[in-house]
Design a protein that fits this description.
There is one protein chain. The longest helix has 17 residues. This protein has one domain: 3-Layer(aba) Sandwich (UDP-N-acetylmuramoyl-L-alanine:D-glutamate ligase), CATH 3.40.1190.20. β2 and β3 form a beta hairpin. The protein is globular. By secondary structure, it is α/β, with parallel strands linked by helices. Bound molecules: adenosine-5'-diphosphate (ADP) and (4-amino-2-methylpyrimidin-5-yl)methyl dihydrogen phosphate (MP5). (4-amino-2-methylpyrimidin-5-yl)methyl dihydrogen phosphate binds next to β1, β2 and α7.
Length: 268
C-alpha cells in the first residue's frame, strides 16, 4: 500500500481555472498531496465573472463520493461551492457515514463578481448539517456575517463571531481578513475553542484575487493530508496565499487568478 497523502475537494468547477476545483487541485499538487475531486456544479466562468451555473444532480454527487470512499480514502477533504441544500445534505451524510477526518469547510457563498454560488435557502442547511462536521471552518467576513447573523465591524466582532461559530459546532475557525478595509492588513483570525491567534499578512493592492479563498482552504487541506497540525497548516496556507497574490499572472481582463507556483519557487 502506498502512503502517498490524498486530499479530496468537493466543490464547483471554474472553467477559467482560477477558483473552485481547479484552484484546489493545483494547490494540492504544489503542496505534495494527491488530489481527488467531487464536482457539485459546473460554472461557465472567467476572470470577468460567472456566466452560467449547472448544478450536478445530487445522485451523481453521491455517486462520486461513493466511488472515492470505496477505493481511495482521503486523509483530508475540503468543501467549497455546494450550491444547494440537497447537495449539502448529501455531502454531510456521506462525511458522517464514512467518518472522514480533517474536514475543511470553506462556506463559499458569493463569487467576487457578485454571483450566487450558494442558494439563500441553503444557508440554514449549511449551518445545521455541515458546520458541526467542520474540523476547520474558513469563512471570509461577509460569510461569517451571514452565518452568525451579526455585523462584523471590528476585531471584537470577529472574535465574537469565531466564538459563535465554535458554538455551532465547528471545531476550529479561521475568519479570513481579505475583506477588511484596504488600509488594514489582511489578518486571519484563528480560534480553536481556547486559543485566539492572529495570522498576519501584508496587504497587496491588486485586482488579481480570483480564487484566494479556495486556494487558502486547499492549502490547509493539503497540509493536513501530509500530517501537519491545524496551526501549522494555517501558517503554511497564509504564506502560500501571500506568495500566490504577490506574483500575479495577469491573465484575463477582470479579477485574475493567483499564482499557484509562487510558493514552491520561493520555499521548496
Ligand atoms: N489583497 C490581499 N493581500 C494579501 N492577502 C490577501 C489579500 N486578499 C486576501 N488575502 C488573503 O487571502 C486569503 C483569502 O481571503 P479572503 O479574500 O478574505 O477570502 P475569499 O476569497 O473567500 O473572499 C486570506 O488568507 C486573506 O488574508
Ligand atoms: C466554482 C467556484 N468556487 C468558488 C468560487 C469563489 O472564489 P473565491 O475563492 O475567490 O472566493 C468561485 N468563484 N467559483
Amino acid at each position: 500500500m502506498s502512503n502517498t497523502p490524498k486530499a479530496l475537494t468537493i466543490a464547483g468547477s471554474d472553467s477559467g481555472g482560477g477558483a473552485g476545483i481547479q484552484a484546489d487541485l493545483k494547490t494540492f499538487q504544489e503542496l505534495g498531496a494527491y488530489g481527488m475531486s467531487v464536482i457539485t456544479a459546473v460554472t461557465a466562468q472567467n476572470t470577468k465573472g460567472v456566466q452560467n451555473i449547472h448544478a450536478i444532480p445530487v445522485e451523481m454527487v453521491a455517486d462520486q463520493l461513493k466511488s472515492i470512499a470505496d477505493d481511495l480514502r482521503p486523509e483530508s477533504l475540503k468543501t467549497g461551492m455546494l450550491f444547494s441544500a440537497e447537495i449539502i445534505e448529501a455531502v454531510s451524510s456521506h462525511i458522517e457515514e464514512y467518518q472522514w477526518t480533517n474536514v475543511v469547510v470553506d462556506p463559499v457563498m458569493i463569487a467576487k463578481g457578485g454571483s450566487e454560488l450558494l442558494k439563500k435557502d441553503a444557508i440554514e442547511a449549511l449551518k445545521k448539517h455541515l458546520l458541526p462536521l467542520a474540523d476547520i471552518l474558513t469563512p471570509n467576513i461577509p460569510e461569517a456575517e451571514q452565518l452568525t447573523g451579526r455585523k462584523i465591524e471590528n476585531k471584537q466582532d470577529r472574535e465574537d463571531a469565531a466564538k459563535f461559530l465554535h458554538g455551532l459546532g465547528a471545531k476550529k475557525i479561521v475568519i479570513k481578513g481579505g475583506h477588511l478595509p484596504n488600509e488594514n492588513e489582511p489578518v486571519d483570525l484563528y480560534y480553536d475553542g481556547e486559543r485566539m491567534i492572529e495570522f498576519e499578512g501584508k496587504r497587496i493592492i491588486t485586482t488579481q484575487t480570483h480564487g484566494t479563498g479556495c486556494t487558502f482552504a486547499a492549502a490547509i487541506t493539503a497540509e493536513l493530508a501530509v500530517g501537519k497540525s491545524p496551526i501549522e497548516a494555517v501558517e503554511t496556507a497564509k504564506t502560500f496565499i501571500q506568495e500566490a497574490i504577490s506574483a500575479p499572472l495577469h491573465l484575463g481582463s477582470g479579477h485574475g487568478p493567483t499564482n499557484h507556483w509562487a510558493y514552491r519557487r520561493k520555499y521548496q
